Write the structure tokens for this entry.
Amino acid sequence: MSDVAQAPWRGSVALVLGSSTGGVGQHVLSLVRGLTGGGCRVLVCGPAATDQHFGFSAAGADFAAVEIPASPGPQDSAAIRSLRRALAGRDVDVVHAHGLRASFVACLARPPAPVVVTWHNAVLAKGLRGSASALVERVVARSATLTLGASQDLVDRARALGARDARLAPVAAPVMAAPKRSRAAVRAEFRLAGDAPLILSVGRLHPQKRYDLLVEASARWRELNPAPVTVVAGSGPSYMQLAQRASVLRARFHLLGHRTDVADLLAGADLAVITSDWEARQLFAQEALRAGVPLIATAVGGLPELVGDAAVLIAPGEVDAVDTAVREMLTDDGKRTEYAQRALRQAATWPTERDTIADVLAAYASVAATTRARQG
């Protein structure tokens, strides 16, 4: 990886994102801090709620509210006009959009600056919505000057759809602050008695995350002695459905809502579990391994290449696989210790936020220079 201090590019960037409460917004915030710290001028364009949630303005960026809808439709026209107004009169060298929805709006806005897009998620929807999303993918792939993929399968997808230049661009999780509470204090919050295990997952409450499987498995673990408690930190549209199902099954399963103390939760956790149907380089997977917490995760998307042999990988969509993997880990102290050690070794191999900023700056310099050469 290159070093930020060696990158000469110090231009003006417009970062565009849609609705986000998790990984995409955190990545954009990381870019804001790194780019402004490196002398770049940064404008963030996205829903007003994202600035309130992530604090782009407080981190040193200008912010323009552009309400990008979650699904393609007639309202996209308003978002495109809004983005054009936000960019008008600004000397922007590169427009960098994050996620397919924001990238679609950015490409159709046709700014004079080159458009870089980062694909953070795969399209999993079926039927009419899936068809509409596939069209969005194709438009974005063929319109962007440069396509960056958070995992190799996203890069391959973009190339298959006609991307002119598609590259892997791993998204590094921001380094968390040290825990503020002890393991005992975290366990006390959940009234864990003795050596009862604490199982943790963090993510948006969305069907893609398949927390329904975790609820079902948690109900089975009531028979264990001691019985573990499972907690999920995050908010999202699946909250009521998951809460109701956990209540019906009498599962020792708790939805914590949005939390800012993930470092504390990891300090108190015995296991981390990811049950998603798809992920790229999920931030929670990175956080868990950096904290040395044994991880069980589905073998989907970019997770296998991210974790290597440092996590127990299971088939997606199978509650039996979740159940078996957790039981085996909880009953084998040596296995948990081994995977905790593997986690720390694997995490040490990953690119840092500094590496990510350096690579993004190099990409900006490349597309900006190519655009100037074509215009000149």
